[in-house]
Amino acid sequence: xxxxxxxxxxxxxxxxxxxxxxxxxxxxxxxxxxxxxxxxxxxxxxxxxxxxxxxxxxxxxxxxxxxxxxxxxxxxxxxxxxxxxxxxxxxxxxxx
Length: 96
Known about the structure:
four-stranded antiparallel sheet
């Protein structure tokens, strides 16, 4: 299993809009992407401008179907996402 963690640093005045857009985007992921075991959006309790999208995938081929051949380095974004952020998304992967 591969755990994928995308972290966003959100502009303080755009947090609610960002979360609304992110929730709308990922809501369809379980039905759309075979191999997605689970996913969740995490908001840092001490700093609400730090938001993580954590997804768990059965294997690398599932991640390729989701994020493309460059899944290990290219985050999946939604249109105009950068307008909500103070910096580009960070992306990390963990093997379970």
